[in-house]
Amino acid sequence: MKKIIYHRFGDAEVLEMADVAMPAVSETTVLIKVKAVSINPLDWKIRNGEMKLMSGSKFPRGIGIDFSGIVEAVGSTIKAYKKGDEVFGLLDVFKGAALADYILADEQDIAAKPKGASFEQAAAAPVVGSAAIQLFDTLVNIQAGTEVLINGASGGIGMFAIQIAKKKGAAVTAVVSDNGLEAAEDWGSDVVINYRNEDVLQAGKLYDAVIDLSNQLPYSAAKKIMKASSVYVHTAPGPKEIISSFFISLFSAKKYKVLMLKPSPVYLKALKSYMEAGLSVVVSRVYSFDAFKTAYTEAPRAHIVGKSVIRVN
Ligand SMILES: NC(=O)c1ccc[n+]([C@@H]2O[C@H](COP(=O)([O-])OP(=O)(O)OC[C@H]3O[C@@H](n4cnc5c(N)ncnc54)[C@H](OP(=O)(O)O)[C@@H]3O)[C@@H](O)[C@H]2O)c1
């Protein structure tokens, strides 16, 4: 079977398609024929070697975290799934190697694919959807009328965060570039700001929560637009942000929090419910398996609205 691997950190050129042995199902795993794998900023940050502390430096490595597919075989202890079931899920965030014809997953890493969703939409959801759910479950408390600013709102997490925040009753301001304006409106934002024409820091409005998905709006700037008692969320934290968030939150009513995704089957099931209830999942680019290098070369600078996905089988 085919699998995308790499033997050293670097740009998309380090990726290669290898012939490898089919993984053998164990008592506690599920063998999945992969249909689609989504592309996440984490993929290229790990591949570039930017996250060695968390990912380790062992080679060869695979790439790809979240996927959809069809169950091919199950271990003897697995009761919830059988051959032929359509599933979606995510592998270990830092070791994921989902971009392959077949993968092994643990039972808690998958859930039944949302009814009505394509394999591409299902593959697009687990990482960014779980991140958005975790964000509102653990970091930002939303009540009716909570004023939320989502900076970088037209990408993967933004797509889920806008729609989930609206369902919870928030008033959402989305900051996007030209190509994300329409989508941010479609997803229910109350106010949409184009960061190319307008500086949200100068707009004179204060928020209960500022969520930065762009890595371009640090706490030091965001606090200008935060209410006296409010929360800021950083989504790409390194050691500096983790330490700052601890001390600032200790001494200030303007809290500084960091997102550290902890995948959970509960989040996958919640995502399935959201999607079956009509939450929109936009997959604006689909690449063939053979085009994996193009996909990972284009993704970081393509200004993708929603998600891009690689179709495997
Ligand atoms: N901590 C965790 O556990 C965890 C988990 C998952 C993801 N993440 C991180 O969370 C971040 C967001 O993930 P994602 O999948 O949503 O990424 P994404 O799809 O790339 O979205 C990022 C968005 O930021 C926007 N942006 C870029 N420059 C901007 C600026 N100056 N002002 C406002 N917006 C700007 C982009 O819009 P344009 O393209 O239109 O410019 C893009 O839509 C990434 O850094 C990712 O690595 C963290």
TrEMBL record:
<feature type="domain" description="Enoyl reductase (ER)">
    <location>
        <begin position="10"/>
        <end position="310"/>
    </location>
</feature>
<dbReference type="InterPro" id="IPR020843">
    <property type="entry name" value="ER"/>
</dbReference>
<dbReference type="InterPro" id="IPR050700">
    <property type="entry name" value="YIM1/Zinc_Alcohol_DH_Fams"/>
</dbReference>
<dbReference type="Pfam" id="PF13602">
    <property type="entry name" value="ADH_zinc_N_2"/>
</dbReference>
<dbReference type="InterPro" id="IPR013154">
    <property type="entry name" value="ADH-like_N"/>
</dbReference>
<dbReference type="GO" id="GO:0016491">
    <property type="term" value="F:oxidoreductase activity"/>
</dbReference>
<protein>
    <submittedName>
        <fullName>NAD(P)-dependent alcohol dehydrogenase</fullName>
    </submittedName>
</protein>
<dbReference type="InterPro" id="IPR011032">
    <property type="entry name" value="GroES-like_sf"/>
</dbReference>
<dbReference type="Pfam" id="PF08240">
    <property type="entry name" value="ADH_N"/>
</dbReference>
<dbReference type="InterPro" id="IPR036291">
    <property type="entry name" value="NAD(P)-bd_dom_sf"/>
</dbReference>
